[in-house]
Amino acid sequence: MNNNPLAVTWSSGTNVSNLNEGNVIQTPPYTLSLNQWQQIVIRKEDKQVDIFIDGILVTTAQLSEGAIAWPLTSEKKFSLAKSMGHPDMYNSNYQGLLDDIAIWNEALTDDEINQLYGGLPNNTIQSLTITAYDKAGNEGSSKVDFFINKCN
Fold first, then answer.
1. What distance in Å separates the CA atoms of residue 47 and residue 69, rounded to the nearest whole number?
2. CA dist., res. 8 & res. 26, Å (int)
3. What is 67-133 written as a DSSP string?
4. How far apart are CA 132 and CA 147, in angstroms?
5. CA-CA distances (angstroms) from residue 126 to 17, 37, 61, 89, 113?
6. pLDDT tens digits for 85-109?
7. How far apart are CA 132 and CA 152, in angstroms?
8. CA dihedral defined by 31, 78, 129, 123, rounded to 10 degrees?
9. pTM (predicted TM-score)
10. Contact, 130 vs 108, CB < 8 A?
């Protein structure tokens, strides 16, 4: 585990002693570049965590448990770009810009991740369907067709 600010970290456990419990996955030092837009994809499927930077798999590792290990007193919130609150490292929030944040309810394939990065030709019509469920079990869906125009 490194304490490099130019790395991407996935944690699915408590903030204390999680390194020893196998709940933290991190890219190698200097994986990210400063002052440059980069696409980061984290894919978690059971115990397997894969981290992609600009469509390229840079880190793959196994967690000790497939389920997210929520602390007993946790509010069970998803956090992004937040300090992990570890007493010795990761004590500051991300400082920068984020864009195009998406969460899927299933693990994307390598091809799907490549398509997200720009593996599709310009002006290709894509479809996206989003389905949401509430606590009462009601379901709602919305579909949109869109074009992808890659910026260079």
1. 12
2. 6
3. S----TT------SS-----SSS--S---S--------SSPPPHHHHHIIIIISPTTEEEEEEEEEE
4. 23
5. 43, 23, 31, 41, 14
6. 666 655 667 777 888 788 888 888 8
7. 34
8. -30
9. 0.66
10. no
